UniProtKB/TrEMBL annotation:
It comes from the Bacteria. It comes from Marinibactrum halimedae. This is DUF1318 domain-containing protein. The chain crosses the membrane at residues 20-45. Pfam families: DUF1318.
Length: 131
């Protein structure tokens, strides 16, 4: 009697595992995607969201700075990355136009402050102001 019970269960299990065998790779993909979405928020910060959240602001020197004293790691990384990109561009402009890096930085700071949207922060004369 035990043999007949096992024989009945085996075909059902075989049918079930064969029918849904295609789902194994799907489960791996879903797990990977879910894991990626869990880690995304730490990298999701971009310049516009950081500015609108009041985390970073434009300075007269043409670079970004943290509005509050000790920013989170992702804010520091964003500031560092963007400032490095800006510095590279400023250097190229300075070389191309045969002017000093500082002159390019100052002009870029003026333009960035002018373009900053209302409600975002700018640093003028060493003080943070909400534009």
């Amino acid at each position: 009697m035990n043999n007949s019970v096992n024989t009945l269960k085996t075909p059902h299990l075989f049918f079930f595992t064969q029918r849904f065998a295609f789902m194994a790779p799907l489960r791996i993909v879903l797990f990977t995607l879910l894991t990626a979405f869990i880690t995304v928020p730490s990298y999701a910060l971009d310049l516009n969201s950081a500015k609108s959240q009041g985390l970073v602001g434009e300075t007269e020197s043409g670079y970004l700075a943290a509005v509050k004293g000790s920013p989170a790691k992702d804010v520091k990384a964003l500031i560092s990355s963007i400032n490095q990109q800006r510095k590279d561009k400023y250097k190229a402009i300075a070389i191309k136009n045969n002017i000093s890096l500082q002159a390019v930085e100052n002009r870029a700071g003026e333009v960035a402050i002018k373009k900053t949207a209302a409600g975002q922060y700018i640093k003028k004369s060493g003080k943070w102001l909400k534009k």
